[in-house]
């Protein structure tokens, strides 16, 4: 697979656990999906790309920065400043919605950009919930808060690991609509992994992951083309 030098995220020859050697790129301003059956290595891929674990072999880049060569302190800064995370379970803290969105700035001792904060909560329709605590929110609302937290630092790339895993079909469609809007309006780059063709079909491009290897790419995916690819895997 050819790799563009201006890619937001690049993975070259990645090997760790179930991954047998993965090459892919996440272009700027696109929603890229990796789809595979359970056990294919999707979460391991996200963990390596996000700097949460180190591959046994291979290279991971965010722009021109090589994550696998960074020390622990530098890697922590990259995770905080350049990468956002959205997981299947929102893992919000027992704080208000506003505090959860701003937790990264709080931990880093940085003053948030209030104008950007207002943009984030407006686009994710959270203003009326800012003083609310997570235990009173719906599952969809919690995931929207998790997205706001991920977007607040204006990351180079957002990693979404089964972001609709706990949502019904209607709520999943709504959350994916928010992610698509973020890509379209604000040029955000997102790498999403999923086992669901209906979810992957919202992406600009889809990579098929099977037994730890990338076995194909689908441009302008549909539910039908992704389902057919999974059936062949």
UniProtKB/TrEMBL annotation:
Coiled coil: none annotated. GO terms for molecular function: ATP binding; ATP hydrolysis activity; transmembrane transporter activity. It comes from the Bacteria. SUPFAM superfamilies: P-loop containing nucleoside triphosphate hydrolases (SSF52540). Signal peptide: none annotated. Residues 3-230 form the ABC transporter domain. PROSITE patterns: ABC_TRANSPORTER_2. Keywords: ATP-binding, Nucleotide-binding. GO terms for cellular component: plasma membrane. This is Putative ABC transport system ATP-binding protein.
């Amino acid at each position: 697979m050819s790799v563009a030098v201006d890619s937001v995220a690049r993975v070259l020859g990645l090997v760790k656990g179930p991954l047998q050697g993965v090459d892919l790129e996440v272009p700027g301003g696109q929603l890229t999906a990796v789809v595979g059956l359970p056990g294919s290595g999707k979460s391991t891929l996200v963990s390596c790309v996000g700097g949460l674990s180190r591959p046994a072999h291979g290279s991971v880049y965010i722009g021109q920065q090589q994550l696998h060569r960074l020390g622990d302190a530098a890697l922590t800064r990259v995770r905080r400043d350049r990468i956002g995370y959205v997981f299947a379970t929102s893992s919000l803290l027992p704080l208000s919605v506003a505090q959860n969105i701003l937790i990264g700035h709080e931990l880093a001792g940085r003053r948030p950009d209030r104008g950007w904060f207002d943009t984030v909560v407006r686009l994710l329709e959270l203003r009326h919930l800012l003083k609310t605590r997570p235990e009173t929110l719906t599952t969809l609302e919690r995931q929207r808060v998790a997205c706001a937290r991920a977007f607040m630092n204006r990351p180079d790339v957002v990693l979404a690991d089964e972001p609709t895993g706990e949502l019904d079909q209607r709520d999943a469609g709504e959350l994916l609509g928010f992610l698509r809007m973020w890509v379209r309006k604000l040029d955000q780059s997102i790498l999403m992994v999923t086992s669901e063709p209906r979810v992957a079909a919202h992406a600009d491009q889809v990579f098929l992951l099977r037994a730890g290897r990338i076995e194909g790419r689908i441009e302008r995916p549909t539910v039908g083309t992704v389902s057919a690819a999974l059936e062949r895997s």
